[in-house]
Amino acid sequence: MASKIVFVTGNVNKLKEVRMLLAPAEGQVPAFELTNIDFDLDELQDSSLENIARHKVSQAQEKLAKGTAVFVEDTALCFDSYNGLPGAYVKWFLKSVGPEGLVRMLAGFDNKKAEAVTTVAFADSNGQIHVFQGKTQGKVVDPRGSREFGWDCIFEPEEGAGKTYAEMEKKDKNQISQRSRAFALLSKHLNGASNSGV
């Protein structure tokens, strides 16, 4: 029977995307069953994305039954011109000023380059924490495409053929996104661990 792994998120779009990213290859039996739970977790005030993710998954471990495998995911948008800010705080900036406000932050700068970073912290059934990170380079542009997924409409990845994430087909985005890169590392770890139990 497949092991159960809990993903801490209340974001339906994110859950759907992660299910796609962690789905087994065609014809393969799933190594685990992915469920989700929506917890309010404290956000550590830290510039280290790894520390923030570790802190969150440690809190999730405390709320779940001992031996439950769980992971959290944190995605940051780091502007070159701001030495990495807004970084992990991008969701609060987005909530407060919207995509246009994020674009306006760079209005006085020639350098619009940004790095999208996803950090996944996974606590296995033994309580050991593993951290995986994926990165995608790009630039901040005026909003284009759907607005249903955070700041996707203002991030144009270098490998995106001139499209923002929001303008890309899901499968194309999943080829190059920082989230897909982080989850490819988690998937590799889980599939390697599935023989010995997650």
Tell me what you see in this structure:
With 198 residues, the chain is an alpha/beta fold. It has a single domain (3-193), classed as Maf protein (Alpha-Beta Complex), CATH 3.90.950. 33% of the residues lie in helices and 26% in strands. The protein has helices at 12-22, 49-63, 90-105, 170-176, 178-193; strands at residues 3-8, 32-37, 69-79, 86-87, 113-123, 129-140, 155-157. The mean pLDDT is 90. One of its GO terms (biological process) is nucleotide metabolic process. Its EC number is 3.6.1.66.
Can I get a quick summary?
Belongs to the HAM1 NTPase family. It is built from five helices and seven strands, in the order E-H-E-H-E-E-H-E-E-E-H-H. It is an alpha/beta fold and 198 residues long.
Task: List its traits.
globular; alpha/beta; 198 residues; Maf protein
pLDDT averaged over residues:
90
Tally of distinct domains: 1
For this structure, the CATH topology is: Maf protein
CATH classification, class level: Alpha Beta
Question: Rg from C-alpha positions?
Answer: 17 Å
Class based on secondary structure composition and strand pairing: alpha/beta
Approximate strand percentage? 25-35%
Describe the biggest sheet?
Answer: 7 strands, mixed
Report the strand count: 7
Task: Report the CATH architecture.
Answer: Alpha-Beta Complex
Morphology:
globular
Query: What fraction, in percent, of the residue positions are helical?
Result: 25-40%
What's the tally of helices? 5
Separation of the first and last Cα atoms: 12 Å
Low-pLDDT parts are none
**Which sequence of SSEs, written as H and E, runs from N to C?**
EHEHEEHEEEHH
Family: Belongs to the HAM1 NTPase family.
Cofactor: Mg(2+); Mn(2+)
Subunit structure: Homodimer.
Protein name: Inosine triphosphate pyrophosphatase
